[in-house]
Amino acid sequence: MAPSARPSKAFVKEEKKSDDIMETPAYSAENVQHNMRIIYYSRTFLSIVGGVVAGVLGLSAISGFLCYFIIMLLVSGGIAAKTKFDIFSYFDSWQRITVDGITAGFMSFVLFWTFAYDIVHIF
């Protein structure tokens, strides 16, 4: 069963105690894991689609790799927009949507990039 594409609020608001000077935010580990799973699936799917697009367009060398990083930048922006730019309600840091998982979809991108390039441009 595939996870729902709707991000879950990870930040849990607690009642402020009068004797506490510093209060740390509490996050639901289950919701953070669910949100990270959504990001992982999104990045993998868009890596495959981006690889096919780069192969069909005939991108090679640096332009193909640049295409991948532009796609990942757009994915990060889309995730931030999906959370209405309130990242800390869904994740514990900006790193979760910007850096984590970028290399996970890279091999899928290269596989489908070379596959689509060979099918379209060799014959």
Automatic annotation (TrEMBL):
- What Pfam families does the database record attribute to this sequence? EMC6 (PF07019)
Q: Which GO terms describe its biological process?
A: autophagosome assembly
- Classification lineage: Eukaryota, Viridiplantae, Streptophyta, Embryophyta, Marchantiophyta
Stated family: Belongs to the EMC6 family.
Q: Does this UniProt record's set of keywords contain Transmembrane?
A: yes
Q: Record's superkingdom?
A: Eukaryota
Which parts of the chain span the membrane according to its record? 45-77, 97-120
The scientific name of the source species is Marchantia polymorpha
Cross-referenced InterPro entries:
Emc6, EMC6-like
Descriptive protein name: ER membrane protein complex subunit 6
